[in-house]
Design the sequence.
């Protein structure tokens, strides 16, 4: 097996996909312990990647073609001997080639003509592999041994301190157990109704499972406000209050996460927090919360999974709207929960 010394890891987005790539990185590091690894990532996700164990250097890319091309001279100067493209798109594969990396590995079935830029092609045996397992195929092609998937964050103490301060400012008291709730998703077709989230959140509080803490990005505050307006119980709200890099520390404090199919779902699973996830147009076989101890809620309709951002079903979004609150609560109540943390 060839020993690589300087590896460029290309996985620029998005949040969940980056988390899916973590076990592949850990496996490559085990197979090539003497190598240094640079990770090419979009600037908006850099805060998370800098907390991934095994990343020696970040290459932060700005939006647009100009932003990508501006990195080429510096990447060429760094003289990588291997590029691992897990994004599998024209832009990511072209960056590997333009950066002068002599060996470039990616999937044989990658999109947009990206395999033309690879020197090694990794076949995917069947389409319903989980993304984590699919990415691990590349690590195995590079000599990684069979090993359980490892999600390794290096969370600095200051992250825990910052999260603790934010929780207290939101009204949390030391020792109070809470369930994190993420009510949004990038695709409108992935969003369980706000009224359902409100009713479920009330049940979580009323039945003594814990307090409810809303999380999300700044552009998701409106949806959280709608849910809170429909609730009867008290809730905590950190939506838009913390940067993405603090998600591992925050979700590591939660007893569990209730969520749509979204990036925070994968961060929670990676830090060992149980997840109850609503799935509609996407497949939990391919992108569900990874590992044991999670619950996935779906309502079967013939067109699901459609992998579409628009719904053409005769009953709009029946795959999600027909997931009842009572059924969701049963799943939430059945999940293991972390012990109380102060």
Sequence:
């Amino acid at each position: 097996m060839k020993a690589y010394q300087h590896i460029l890891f290309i996985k620029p987005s998005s949040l969940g996909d980056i988390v899916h790539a973590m076990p592949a990185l850990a496996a490559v590091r085990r197979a090539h312990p003497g190598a240094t690894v640079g990770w090419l990532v979009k600037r908006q996700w850099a805060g998370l990647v800098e907390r991934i164990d095994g990343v020696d250097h970040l290459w932060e890319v700005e939006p647009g073609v100009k932003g990508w091309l501006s990195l080429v001279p510096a990447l060429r100067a760094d003289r990588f001997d291997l590029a691992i493209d897990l994004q599998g798109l024209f832009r990511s594969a072209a960056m590997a080639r333009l950066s002068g990396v002599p060996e470039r590995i990616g999937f044989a079935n990658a999109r947009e003509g990206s395999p033309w830029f690879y020197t090694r092609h990794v076949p995917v045996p069947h389409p319903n592999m989980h993304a984590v397992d699919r990415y691990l195929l590349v690590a195995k092609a590079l000599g990684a041994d069979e090993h359980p998937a490892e999600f390794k964050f290096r969370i600095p103490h200051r992250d825990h301190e910052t999260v603790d301060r934010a929780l207290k400012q939101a009204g949390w008291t030391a020792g109070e157990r809470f369930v994190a709730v993420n009510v949004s998703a990038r695709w409108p077709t992935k969003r369980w109704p706000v009224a359902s989230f409100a009713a479920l959140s009330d049940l979580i509080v009323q039945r003594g499972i814990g307090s409810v803490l809303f999380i999300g990005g700044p552009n998701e505050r409106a949806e959280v406000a709608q849910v809170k307006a429909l609730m009867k119980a008290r809730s905590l709200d950190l939506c838009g209050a913390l940067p993405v890099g603090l998600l591992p520390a925050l979700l590591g404090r939660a007893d569990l996460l209730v969520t749509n199919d979204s990036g925070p779902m994968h961060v929670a699973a990676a830090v060992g927090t149980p997840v109850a996830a609503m799935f509609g147009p996407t497949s939990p076989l391919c992108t569900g919360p990874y590992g044991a101890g999670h619950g996935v809620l779906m309502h079967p309709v013939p067109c699901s999974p459609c992998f579409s951002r628009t719904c053409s079903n005769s009953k709009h979004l029946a795959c999600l709207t027909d997931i009842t609150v009572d059924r969701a609560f049963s799943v939430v109540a059945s999940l293991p929960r972390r012990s109380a943390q102060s």
